[in-house]
UniProtKB/TrEMBL annotation:
<dbReference type="InterPro" id="IPR050182">
    <property type="entry name" value="Cytochrome_P450_fam2"/>
</dbReference>
<dbReference type="Pfam" id="PF00067">
    <property type="entry name" value="p450"/>
</dbReference>
<protein>
    <recommendedName>
        <fullName>unspecific monooxygenase</fullName>
        <ecNumber>1.14.14.1</ecNumber>
    </recommendedName>
</protein>
<keyword id="KW-0349">Heme</keyword>
<keyword id="KW-0492">Microsome</keyword>
<keyword id="KW-0472">Membrane</keyword>
<comment type="similarity">
    <text>Belongs to the cytochrome P450 family.</text>
</comment>
<dbReference type="InterPro" id="IPR002401">
    <property type="entry name" value="Cyt_P450_E_grp-I"/>
</dbReference>
<keyword id="KW-0408">Iron</keyword>
<dbReference type="InterPro" id="IPR017972">
    <property type="entry name" value="Cyt_P450_CS"/>
</dbReference>
<keyword id="KW-0256">Endoplasmic reticulum</keyword>
<keyword id="KW-0503">Monooxygenase</keyword>
<dbReference type="InterPro" id="IPR001128">
    <property type="entry name" value="Cyt_P450"/>
</dbReference>
<dbReference type="InterPro" id="IPR036396">
    <property type="entry name" value="Cyt_P450_sf"/>
</dbReference>
<keyword id="KW-0479">Metal-binding</keyword>
<keyword id="KW-0560">Oxidoreductase</keyword>
């Protein structure tokens, strides 16, 4: 398949490479104390910057796509490169442009056809070449930043993910089965960008559209924000446990939009019998997350947006093993913790500071995906952010 052209990093690698790089990445993200700042500090800072950018719209109608894309991208930049970018920085805009382009192309009918019949790629010029070029440009930039880090590296004081990886490379340089290489660093950072930028921004964008469609839900979330957080301090991740309705809304947004309907491609590691079919070792398989997220036994009326799907009779948050927007098993999304933190903090910070105003009657808002290939992309829309 086209998307499996990379055998390094986390997403499309396997075996020892996958195990080592994933373990290192999870540990680095989990123990993130670089520069005495936690990941939550970085997300909160970006949430405040996001609010300031939204204020600049002066309550005028705007398409939120670009601004909502900047925030999660900047969190990843802060983790990887130590610094966030100004939203008008040209380098930052180029990174954003390439990711937006790639997700649009990857969800197009042409790419879906190529994924089904890979032989076509060799015979027809197509937009997949643009994806390859965009990835190459991004890796050139990452390589440039890596060289800068190598020149100023302090082994005892890592500043960011690149520093941590370079230190690990030095520690492992005598290992004959070397997994920590520059090539794996470039691929891993590309994976972190790809998995941690467009997915979160699309979920945020789709989430705001659903909140416009259901103002009664928005009002209840803002009531809970007023009660638990108030108007004068930044939301923190500890607030989530005391905000069951808001937590349920975030979960229901993810369930309802079914962001990655068929998951990423996987391969079976040995011959296996499944429902009377024998699947040979090495066979590429696609798993339907839709069938779980829209299971009508677990979620009555699954096609209806209803935060009650995640609340019990007493209004407490209700966990379910059917909640799988990040996939499941050993290859569950490595950035799940970061994504869940971002979705909660960004949405609560926006709703703490603004009233969302639709340009059309809520009942006329269409929430049908505009594109539904690799990812479910919401239709374009505008709204007004009215300061509270």
């Amino acid at each position: 398949m086209l998307l499996q052209c990379i055998a390094k990093g986390i997403v499309f690698s396997n075996g020892k490479t996958w195990k080592e790089i994933r373990r290192f990445s999870l540990m680095t993200l989990r123990n993130f104390g670089m520069g005495k700042r936690s990941i939550e500090d970085r997300v909160q800072e970006e949430a405040r910057c996001l609010v300031e950018e939204l204020r600049k719209t002066n309550a005028s109608p705007c398409d939120p796509t670009f601004i909502l894309g900047c925030a999660p991208c900047n969190v990843i930049c802060s983790i990887i490169f130590h610094n966030r970018f100004d939203y008008k920085d040209q380098t930052f805009l180029n990174i954003m442009k390439r990711f937006n382009e790639n997700i649009r192309i990857a969800s197009s009918p042409w790419i879906q056809i190529c994924n089904t019949f890979p032989v076509l790629i060799d015979y027809f010029p197509g937009s997949h070449n643009k994806v390859i070029k965009n990835n190459a440009n991004l890796k050139d930039y990452i390589l440039e930043k890596t060289k800068e880090h190598q020149a100023s590296l302090d082994m005892n004081n890592p500043r960011d993910f690149i520093d941590c990886f370079l230190i690990k490379m030095e520690q492992e340089k005598h290992n004959q089965e070397l997994e920590f290489t520059v090539e794996n660093l470039l691929a891993t950072i590309s994976d972190l960008f790809g998995a941690g930028t467009e997915t979160t921004s699309t979920t945020l964008r789709y989430g705001l559209l659903l909140l416009l469609k259901h103002p009664e839900v928005t009002a209840k979330v803002q009531e809970e924000i007023d009660h638990v957080i108030g108007r004068h301090r930044s939301p923190c991740i500890q607030d989530r446990s005391r905000m069951p309705y808001t937590d349920a809304v975030v979960h229901e947004i993810q369930r309802y939009i079914d962001l990655i309907p068929t998951n990423l491609p996987h391969a079976v590691t040995h011959d296996i019998k499944f429902r009377n079919y024998v699947i040979p070792k090495g066979t590429t398989i696609l798993t339907s997350l839709t069938s779980v997220l829209h299971d009508d036994k677990q979620f009555p009326n699954p096609e209806v947006f209803d935060p009650g799907h995640f609340l019990d009779e007493s209004g407490n948050f209700k966990k379910t093993e059917y909640f799988m927007p990040f996939s499941a098993g050993k290859r569950i999304c490595a950035g799940e913790g970061l994504a869940r933190m971002e979705l909660f903090l960004f949405l609560t910070t926006i709703l703490q500071n603004f009233t969302l105003k639709s340009l059309v009657d809520p009942k006329d808002i269409d929430t049908t995906p505009n594109v539904n290939g690799l990812a479910s992309v919401p239709p374009p829309y505008q709204l007004c952010f009215i300061p509270v």
